[in-house]
Amino acid sequence: MVTAAALVELIGPWATGADPLNEQLADAITRAIEVGLLPPGTRLPAERELARELALSRTTIVAAYDRLRLAGLARSRQGSGTRVAARRPDLHDLSPTPAGDTDTEGPVRIGGGVVWTSGFAPSDDPEAIQLTIGALPAGPAVGASIETALREDVPALLGEMGYDPFGWPPLRVAISAYLARLGVPTDPDQILVTNGAQQAVHLVAAHIGGPGSAVVVENPTYIGAIDAFRTTGNRLLPMPVDDEGPRVEVASLLAASAQVRLAYVVPTYHNPTGVTMPESRRRELARSAAEFDFHVVEDLTPDTSLGLDVPPPIAAFDHGERVITLGSLSKIGWGGLRIGWIRAPRADVDRLVAGKIVADHATSLITQAIAARVLERVDEVVAFTREAAAMRRTIVTEALAAKLPDWEWVAPEGGLSIWVRLPDADAVQFSRLAARHGVIVRPGPLASPDGGFRDHIRIAYGADPERLGEAVDRLAAAWAEYAPQARRFPRTSLAVSV
């Protein structure tokens, strides 16, 4: 069962239009069902309980539940309440799983109720092409770094106990030097090594934010960040993104009217749009954080620039220790290393390391040694990554332009994903149809804290280049099947008379 408080958190801001409240509430719950936040069989809160939580009349809740039942999305049985109905047989069943760039199945808890996070499981078709992974295979320099570490570092490490929750000191020094190169002078004591950037986001969400904390997040943003903040009980406040990144003035407006704890941004090669925030906005966000006393969490994971042709990180403009910087080797090197880091004021590092000790005690010394060797050769590593990403990006953009000319997108400045608008389409329904054609994409609502961007999909292009052209062919075949049906059978509305 999902509690009333958990359901309210899941659906986010929902009463934003002029339609009757029961219609808006039913639409919001429908979005949560369709993106996988409320899987089949989930028991919805009792009408009176939800009415109390939302400060609405019970009649409004009854009417909203009636709309869900009429749409076939919910069923009721006396004595067992109202539950999310089994998926309709005409829809491809992509089981909900934890999202982000992984596909591991499992439940999480929000507000006391068991729910599922917002990803979709991969198709059970072994030939399906995954356009969901924004990462690349390891290049030659990573392989050489592994060989060097195993030969020169690991024998000595075998004599150590292996438990250093802050991270292996030589790696912390290497990360500090890397950040200084990007324009952020860093003391190694400011670094906490993590098992990938996802753990870094989760630690910050849990121990700098936490239950009830107001967190400003981009809309759209990195799917895994939405999951991390939601599953640790934070309250998400959307901040729109334009062609220069997040509209940071919105963070100031929100902070002026609410006690904002954190603002999470991906300033360079934004995930999923690929845009880069200009220096003026970075300065403004750092200034706002100091003025309104909140933390900026900047995620540099997609940044493969090495400081070239992009502004310095937001931390370079931080004069009040309000910026926490996250990074990882997953995009610039290899995701298989699972090495990430947090740069924060020392007092915050001490809070975060306590959470890491609870989570896993420490990160593998062997992978940390390899990571340090990777950072020694970072120019060579990044050169391979940028070339490999550019080649894949060209394949996909040229194929999209040729095969799907009515789709709308802007060639990303960097990163490993393209944010595509589908004209007059429901991206959730289309993604299910695309899966039947053997290609897996993420629908836009998964990247939105308020379930928006229902007409967008995220295409990640980390797959084998030889399969990327075929993937677009499959998308085109799915679109050829979907578009005539969409014109003939417009999306069913829940606005029916009761």
Give an overview in words.
The protein is α/β, with parallel strands linked by helices and 498 residues long. It has three domains: 4-117, Winged helix-like DNA-binding domain superfamily/Winged helix DNA-binding domain (Arc Repressor Mutant, subunit A); 129-138 and 380-488, Aspartate Aminotransferase, domain 1; 140-378, Type I PLP-dependent aspartate aminotransferase-like (Major domain) (Aspartate Aminotransferase, domain 2). Helix content is 43%, strand content 16%. The chain has 16 helices and 20 strands. It has helices at residues 4-11, 21-34, 47-54, 58-70, 140-157, 169-182, 196-207, 223-231, 248-257, 279-292, 330-334, 346-360, 365-376, 378-403, 427-436, 465-488; strands at 74-77, 81-84, 96-97, 107-110, 113-116, 119-120, 129-130, 191-194, 214-219, 235-242, 245-246, 260-265, 295-299, 323-328, 340-343, 408-409, 417-421, 439-440, 442-443, 456-460. The strands form six sheets. An eight-stranded mixed sheet has the order 8-15-14-13-12-9-10-11, with helices on both faces. Helix 10 links the parallel strand 12 (260-265) and strand 13 (295-299). Helix 3 (47-54) packs across helix 4, helix 5 (140-157) packs across helix 13 (365-376) and helix 7 (196-207) packs parallel to helix 8. The longest helix is centred in the C-terminal third of the chain and has 26 residues, at 378-403. The radius of gyration is 23 Å and the shape is globular. The two termini are 26 Å apart. Mean pLDDT is 87; it is low at 87-123 and 488-498.
